[in-house]
Amino acid sequence: MNVNEIDDLLYSIPEQIDYTTIIDEVDLEDIPKERVNKLIDILNNYSNYEFYQVFKAGGLLCHWGIEEGFIYISNLLLSSGQESIRKEFLEGYDYKYILSAIQGYIVCKIHTEEESIARNKIYPCIKEIINLAKTKFFSIAGFYYLIFERYNEYVPLIEDYLGYIIKHPQENYWNIHDTTKLLLKMKSNVVEKIFEENGKQLSDFGLEENSNSPSKKEEKKEKGYFWWLKW
Questions:
Q1: pLDDT digits (tens, 9 = 90+) for 71-106
Q2: Burial label, 213 (beta-carbon count in 10 A; 0-12, 13-18, 19+)
């Protein structure tokens, strides 16, 4: 395939799709089997492609719940043999994309007999992403609705994450805001302690105690804010 054909494979939206302009958000049932097979072929022959072409192919497949994609993404994230690749190529926004791909993977398994197995498989990946987010300052809030609705095993990790990022408020205003809001809704008993130990108040991050009403600063946040945070 030439560059244009590869780009078309990785980014183009099928003509009949009118519900999104982002290929990752297209339902697997709307993707031709031939296209899926070509994406898998990119993973199998990765040495013939640029890293970000392989990365995108793996991310798409993972997002659609396809095992080859998850294996690639989890290996890239966790394998010691991939450390040099991570250091050379991956930035915070790439890890955010990885989180989105893994989120898509587990969502595809919800209400199926595969969910329990997939739930265990993604845990080390999500744990690693949460740890990376402490120092790379990317948002992990896209995963929070799943923690709230189904996967409370991540609450201790999120509590630890908040305890770290609250020490870096300038880089993490919205990360602290979103994380605190999640933990308050999950009745976490450590939020008050974390804030007291760091000399902070909820109002410092656009939150009001015992209120779901946004502050004026929160109202200015860009569109696309996660729906559950608007409760």
A1: 999 999 999 999 999 999 999 999 999 999 999 999
A2: exposed
